[in-house]
Specification:
76% of the residues lie in helices and 0% in strands. The protein is mainly alpha-helical.
């Protein structure tokens, strides 16, 4: 066994630990915030915070259960019984079970200094689930808490903790998913560490953050702006349907997946085509940047009293600077740092025993 294998084991074990901490911190802080709102009599805020927690959890439990069943049907390894699987997912601890199993496997591989390909397949499944949870729970929570702070001037230490953990969760899950994905796909090069990873992280964070802030501003202008967000979600879902994605093994689950993609597309670009998406990505970010820049302008025009607030100027400057820097890092990454596809696979097809895992992955080359 080479030192590279040992390094991979150590790195994956550390990533699993960090991801688990972020997950528990994110859900835990949001639950505490729900209790705080409830005790203070802010029932609507408490209900909305809880709805985002449950919607994200419900979605990832559904996918987690389906993927456990896929693995069990393919007889890749000893699996949990059907009753056990149903129980842990009804109790909303399917992802925790996955984390504990992956940590145990990672520690075992680290102890015996062995690299297991299955280890990275499980890590990729988990990273995909965390990505779904991030855009269904963490990102909407940031929008909600920003709205409460800016529009209602309600601030608490727990709010800031919850927002900080959600932000870390966004940064971690997008990069971890990217790295796991490229490691698991046989026909693409892995994502290099160092500068490429940092630039990719900056691109994602600096484009998602102004998106969150601009959507918050639109909701401050009118709560009916949520209908516009729903329309964007429908467009994203419709696009996924037009592309005829075949990510899942059942039709119902496929529709849930397409609806999840629609939510992600509200906040960031997500490639479902598995091919060069330069034109769709360009169109997406032109549309997104236009909306982001329109938000503070409309805030000034239709809510002029906001000009005297302590948040008006910082919002304008942040959206302008963050959006510009984010798009700049996007250009740098895909022009100079993006790992290119391998020209050809050796035999032109994947090994049969990899087929189920790769089917869940082969549509995603970039996000």
């Amino acid at each position: 066994m080479t030192s590279t294998g040992g390094d991979l084991n150590t790195f994956r074990w550390l990533c699993t630990i960090i991801g688990f901490i972020f997950y528990l911190g994110d859900i835990g802080s949001d639950l505490l915030l729900t209790v705080q709102y409830f005790r203070a009599g802010h029932l609507t805020w408490a209900a909305l915070t809880l709805v985002f927690i449950l919607s994200g959890s419900l979605c990832i439990q559904i996918f987690s259960y389906a993927w456990f069943n896929d693995d069990k049907r393919d007889k890749e390894e000893d699996s949990l019984s059907t009753g056990h699987l149903i129980g842990i997912h009804v109790l909303q601890i399917g992802i925790i079970t996955r984390y504990l199993d992956l940590m145990k496997r990672s520690l075992k591989s680290l102890w015996f200094n062995q690299v297991q390909s299955r280890l990275f397949d499980l890590a990729t499944d988990l990273s995909m689930l965390r990505l779904f949870e991030t855009f269904l729970e963490s990102v909407p929570q940031l929008v909600l808490q920003l709205y409460i702070i800016l529009e209602h001037n309600h601030r608490s230490t727990l709010q800031y903790i919850s927002m900080a953990v959600s932000f870390l969760n966004i940064a971690w899950s997008t990069v971890d998913y990217r790295r796991c994905l490229r490691h698991s796909l046989p026909h693409v090069n892995e994502m290099p560490c160092g500068i490429p990873t940092v630039v990719y992280l900056l691109y994602k964070v600096l484009t998602i953050t102004p998106r969150i802030l601009s959507l918050t501003v639109f909701i401050m202008l009118s709560t009916f702006s949520t209908l516009a967000m729903a329309f964007i979600w429908l467009l994203g879902t419709f696009w996924a349907c037009l592309e005829k994605t075949d990510f899942c093994t059942s039709r119902v689950l496929e529709y849930i997946y397409r609806a999840t993609v629609g939510v992600i597309l509200i906040f960031t670009f997500f490639n479902i085509k598995g091919e060069n998406t330069k034109v769709p990505m360009t169109i997406y970010y032109i549309f997104s940047a236009s909306q982001n820049l329109a938000a503070p302008i409309l805030l000034f025009l239709f809510k002029p009293e906001s000009e005297g607030t302590d948040y008006f100027l910082p919002i304008i400057l942040f959206i302008l600077m963050s959006n510009s820097l984010g798009l700049g890092f996007l250009g740098i990454y895909y022009s100079h740092l993006h790992p290119r596809k391998v020209a050809d696979e050796i035999d032109g097809m994947e090994r049969q025993e990899q087929k189920t895992e790769k089917t869940r992955l082969n549509h995603f080359i970039q996000i």
